[in-house]
Structures are given as C-alpha cells and as structure tokens.
Amino acid sequence: MLRRSMVATVVLGIVAIGAGSALADAGRQAGARHGGFIPWHGEGFGGYAVAGPAPSQQGPSQQGPMYDLAPVIAQAAFAEAQFDNRWIDLQLMLARARNDFYISSDYLGARKEVERTQTVFESARDTVLARLQNDRAYKDLIEKRTQQQIAIASTGVGSGLRNAVATEKMRYGAMASEMEAVALADDPAVQDAKAHLIAAQDTLTLKEKQFESYLFNRKETVAARDALETARANKAGAEGFLRGAEITRADQLNLNSQNYSGNLVGNGPWWP
C-alpha cells in the first residue's frame, strides 16, 4: 500500500510539472501574438509591450495584471477641461471687447444719428399720409376696403361668396397702398429724410464691421484662438489615448481569459 501511494505521488508531480510547462509555453505564445499597446508606458504611441505577466511568472494559479485606466481617464478629463476653459476665455474676451465698443462715444454717436434720422423720416412720412387722408379717391378706397372687411365677417368660412369678398378687399387695399407709395415717392421731404436714414444706417453698419475685423485680427484674439486650437488638439489626442488604453485593457482581459481559465482536469479519471 505504501509503495502504491509513493508511485501515485510521483506520477501526480510529473503531470503537474508537465501541465505547468504547457501553460507557460501557451502563455508565451499567446502573449507574443497579442502584443498590447500601453500608451502610458514606454515612449507614447511608439511603445509596444507584450500583454500579460513575464513568462517566468505565468502559471495556472496566477492572473495577468489589469491595466489601470485611471491615469488616461484623468488625462482625458483634464484635456477636456482645458479646452472648455480656453473656449470660455475666448468668449469672455470677445464679449468684453464688444461691450467696450458698444459703449464707446463713437459708436453711441452713430446709433443716435440713426435714431434721429429715423424720427425725421417717420415724421415726414406721417405728414404725407395724413395729407392723403383728405384725398377723395383715397378715402373711397379705404371705405370700400373697410366694407369688404365687414362683409367677410358675415359670410360663411370656405364659401364662394367669402372668397369673392376677400378678393375685392385685397384689390381695394392694393390700390390704396399704391396711392400711398406714389405720394411718398413724390414728396421731397420724405425722400431727403429717407436718404439721410439710409446713410446713417450704412455708417453704423460699417463701424460694426470694421470693429469686428479689428477684433478678429488683434494679437490678443489671435493668441486666444491659437490656445483654443492647441487645447482642441490635446483633447483629441487624450481621447484617442483613452480609446487605445480601453482596447488594450480589453485585449488583456481576453488574453487572461485564454491563458488562465483552462481546466486541468481531464475527461476521465486519473487512474484507470
């Protein structure tokens, strides 16, 4: 009996040693096939390393090291925060510059000129339209348009009569509008006020465009835009780094599953 136990012990030892060697060889071959990209080790994107533990450390009872994603996650978050900060810095700088421009005496003077010429134009226009109220032909058109409006309210919705009345109303309204346009075009005061208003509006628009051009090209704005673009590139790089790390970790998990999840128990009993 004792002799039989010693023989069994020796056989089990031989089997265990053979199984361990086979797993180590399989781990080395799989590791060589699944070269893992470790972006935070080595020399950046140029660094490659064999995933999993060193061959001498592999065995059926060991797990390969899990890649720690915390550094690259933090780097990606930092890069995103930097980009957001640079964008906010640029917007605040532009907003302050525009606010200073809008309260400048030059710009306020141009706006006041627009408002003044607008008032003059409206006054001249109202004078002509008030004078037109005494024109008999114009008054007849307005009365007929009003009558048709009342008739529309008393006819059925979608009826042929309602459509005919609406058409007549539109015709009288168009004729009245044409008389107004002719009267305004023939009045020198209205045309002069309109010309001054257009000139004032053009001056204001030109000042705004000139300021925007200056703001876009001044050195502070150029520097802020360059910083934003640098932050944008860093953000993209950090996000790519993170994606690479996630893929590497997934490869590592898959490799560990292949290397260490095998069952050493055979299909049949150890002893016949």
What does this structure look like?
This protein is an all-alpha fold. The chain contains seven helices and two strands, in the order H-E-E-H-H-H-H-H-H. The chain has helices spanning 2-33, 70-102, 105-132, 136-154, 160-186, 188-217, 219-260; strands at residues 35-37, 48-50. Strands 1-2 form a two-stranded antiparallel ribbon. The radius of gyration is 43 Å and the shape is elongated. The model is unreliable at 1-64 and 263-272 (pLDDT under 50).
Q: Which structural category fits the helices and strands?
A: mainly alpha
Main β-sheet, in a few words?
2 strands, antiparallel
- Relative strand content: under 5%
Strand order of the largest sheet: 1-2
- What Rg do the Cα atoms give? 43 Å
Element string (H = helix, E = strand):
HEEHHHHHH
The average pLDDT value, as a whole number, equals: 77
**N-C termini distance:** 17 Å
- The helix count comes to 7
Which short descriptors sum up this protein?
272 residues; two-stranded antiparallel sheet; mainly alpha
